[in-house]
Amino acid sequence: MPKWLVRLKGEKFDLEDLPSLLHSPEHTVIEENGFYYLKSSDFDLLGSADEVRERAIAIIKVLNGAVKLHISSFRGVSEDGVTMIEEDGRRHHYVYLGGSIAARSKVSANLTVTTSNDTQQIAPLPRNVESWISLAKTDKAIADALHLFRENTWISLYKVYEIIREDVGGQQAITRNGWATKQGLSRFTQTAQSRAALGDFARHATNKFKPPLQPMSIKEAEALLRGIILSWLSSKT
């Protein structure tokens, strides 16, 4: 039976962190000759490069969000071709054809997250990245939330909030569980919906949604949602 690898494309800063985060039989990232490849037990029963690529893209969407939860500076990776390894070791490569570069510095994965109610959470251990990706395979809400969190826009963060709110039974459940304060959520939602505060980045084009007295920054919004997601995922494990 052939083995499948999916080459990953991205900045070296992002790629080089993945082997230490993903090394289970279910999802593994390996480095070979300067290239990084995704291996997965999900590929084992697939019969074509197209099927492997399709499954890999779905995994990578969740992987990007899960790793961004762990490393806030993570920008994401993408699929860059499929390799089939035959039993005799021969390799067949399938390439699918279809920015700007900025200087970056390495940020430790041991982050401290301050939530809207001023509580602090230490970023989870690397092994949790694997568990989140596994949970996402059977929980669409988690898969969607992780994928959207990685996009890191006002609209995507608001969608993450909506997914979690619906999953737990409303905003009151979020505040009752201590994942965020009512005031913090109100400031987030008012900012996200206000064209006066965000211009074209707002959820709505109309000017009827008034901004809060102190509009939230996108960094504050990401920190708020990061804390909520971490608490939500913890409640599911």
Verbal overview:
The chain is α+β, with helices and mostly antiparallel strands and 237 residues long. It has two domains: 3-94, no CATH class; 112-235, no CATH class. It has ten helices and seven strands. Strand 2 (27-32) and strand 3 form a beta hairpin. Helix 3 crosses helix 4 (127-136) and helix 6 (154-168) runs parallel beside helix 10 (218-235). 34% of the residues are buried. The model is unreliable at 99-124 (pLDDT under 50).
Please provide the count of β strands: 7
In DSSP terms, counting alpha (H) and pi (I) runs of 4 or more, how many helices?
10
Q: What value does the average pLDDT take?
A: 84
Strand order of the largest sheet: 2-3-1-4-5
Radius of gyration: 19 Å
Distance between the termini: 34 Å
Instruction: List low-pLDDT spans.
Output: 99-124
Q: Domain count, please report it.
A: 2
* Secondary-structure element series: EHHEEHEEEEHHHHHHH
Q: Which bin fits the share of residues in helices? A: 40-55%
What general form does the structure show?
elongated
Beta-strand content estimate: 15-25%
The main β sheet shows up as: 5 strands, antiparallel
Q: Structural class, from secondary structure content?
A: alpha+beta
